[in-house]
Amino acid sequence: MLARLLALLAIVVSLVAFILVEYGTVHWWVFAMSSAAFVLVILAVVAALLAERGPSLIVVWAQVLAVAAAVAFVVVGIVTYYDNTAPFSNSGLAAARWLGQAEVLSVAVLAFGLTLVRRRTMMAAVVLAIAVVTAISSGTYAITLTEKANAAASTWWQVATVGAFLAAAAAAGLNRGGSVAPSSAE
Asked: Which of 64, 77, 133, 134 suits 142 as a labelling partner, its CA being 20 to 30 A distant?
C-alpha cells in the first residue's frame, strides 16, 4: 500500500512542478518539488520491493494511465526538441523537461507493477517487446549522436531510459521466466 501511495504522490508532485515550470514559475521550491518527485518514485520502488504483491484493478488502471501519460510526454518531448519554429528557442531544454516528466512517470509505472500480482498475459509480453525495442533503438540512435556531443543525443538517451523503465514494468507483471499463456483467471 505504501508503494502505491508513494508512486501516486510522486506523480502528483511531479505533474504540479512540471505545470508550474511550464507556466513560468521558476522559484527554488518548484525545482525542489521536481527533484523530490524523483526521490519519491524511487522510494516507491523500494517500498514495492519490500511489500507483498496483491491484485488491484485501481492500480492496474493507474498503471495504464501512467503508461499513456509517459508515452504522451515522450512524443511531445521529441516534437518539442525538433520544433524549429521559434528562431531563438531553447528546444533542448524544453524537451528535457517533457522527457524528464516521462522518466518519472515510467518509474512510477514500474513501482505500480511491482505491487501487482504476476499475470500470464499476452499484453504484458507485447508491451515488454515494444518497450525493449524502443529502449534499444533509441539508445542506438543516441550513440550515433553522442560523438557530436549535442542535445539530440541527450534527448534520445532520455527516450531510451523511458523505454527501459517501461520494459522493466512490463517484465514485473509477467510470471518468472517471462512465460505467457492464456489465463482463465482474468
From this structure: 64
53: Cβ contacts below 8 Å, ≥ 6 apart: 114, 115, 116, 117, 118
To which residue does cell 492464456 refer? 182
* Cell numbers linked to 11: 506523480
With b for 16 or more beta-carbon neighbours within 10 A and e for fewer, the 113-131 pattern comes to bbbbeebbbeebbebbeeb
Give the chain's largest Cα–Cα span: 57
Q: 3-state DSSP helix/strand/coil percent for the chain, to nearest 5?
A: 80, 0, 20
What is each CA distance from 146 to 15, 143, 160, 170, in whole angstroms? 30, 5, 14, 28
Distance separating alpha carbons of residues 129 and 167, to the nearest angstrom: 7
∠ at Cα 49 (4, 159), nearest 5°? Answer: 75
Backbone phi, psi, residue 54, to 5°: -155, 160
